[in-house]
Amino acid sequence: MENLFDIKGRVVVMTGATGVLGSTIVKYFAAQGCKVVLLGREKSADIGNGLVAEIKAAGGEAMFLTTNVLNEDALKQNLADILKAYGTIDILLNGVGGNMGPANVGPDQTIFDMDLEATRKVFDINIIGAILPTKVFAKVMVDNKKGSIINFCSMSSFRPLTRVAGYGMAKSALASWTEWLAGELATKFGDGLRVNGIAPGFILSNQNRSLLLNPDGSLTDRSHKIIGHTPFGRFLEADELVGALHYLASDASKGVTGTILVVDGGFNSFSI
Ligand SMILES: NC(=O)c1ccc[n+]([C@@H]2O[C@H](COP(=O)([O-])OP(=O)(O)OC[C@H]3O[C@@H](n4cnc5c(N)ncnc54)[C@H](O)[C@@H]3O)[C@@H](O)[C@H]2O)c1
Question: Which of 50, 224, 235, 238 is the S-S candidate for 24 at Cβ 3.0 to 4.6 Å?
Answer without folding.
Answer: 238
